[in-house]
Amino acid sequence: MSDLTTTIAALPYALPACPNARIALFALRRMGAQGLHDARASHALFTAFGQEFRRPLVLMRALMADLAGTAAGTIAIAPCCCARMTAAERTMLTILARVETAPDTARLLLGDLLGVRRVDAVLASVAAVATAFADDGRPICV
User: InterPro entries given for it (predicted)?
Assistant: First the structure.
């Protein structure tokens, strides 16, 4: 198998066109790889949200902690420099984009992603992050 085939198998999706989804993805990747208090994730949210950065930052940290504490297995994330996304990252962005408009779909996707049936607490965290982005005029879309 060639390197390109291997890359596309591991990272099957292109980055989202939505700049808000890219911000969320960057924070997700940084916090997932470097920890909840990663300075670059904090800086990215500060740059995007200005003085109102604390709400999305704290909620993203809470979401990441909920994901890590609830998931039955690992959730594949790519390094921040990757120009493509894993299936798990794509699913997470889809959940963030649909949690307000299609909560049943978001719940099913989240259950599949986490490998557990009871996802209401994590879904509440997802909704809080999505609302924080939307309230600042940065709705996440995919």
Answer: DUF6628
Neighbours of 75 (CB within 10 A): 18
Per-residue confidence (pLDDT) for residue 9, from 0 to 100 = 75
Where the chain has pLDDT below 70, the residues are 1-4, 6-8
pTM: 0.92
Structural domain contains residue 3: no
Instruction: State pLDDT tens for residues 57-70.
Output: 999 999 999 999 99
**Is 9 contained in some domain?**
no
Angle between helices 120-135 and 103-114 (to 10 degrees): 120
**Domain count within the chain:** 1
> Is 18 buried (19+), middle (13-18) or exposed (0-12) by CB count in 10 A?
middle
Domain range for residue 84? Answer: 17-135
**Where does residue 7 fall: left (phi above 0), alpha (psi -120 to 50 degrees), or beta otherwise?**
alpha
Establish if 2 belongs to a structural domain: no
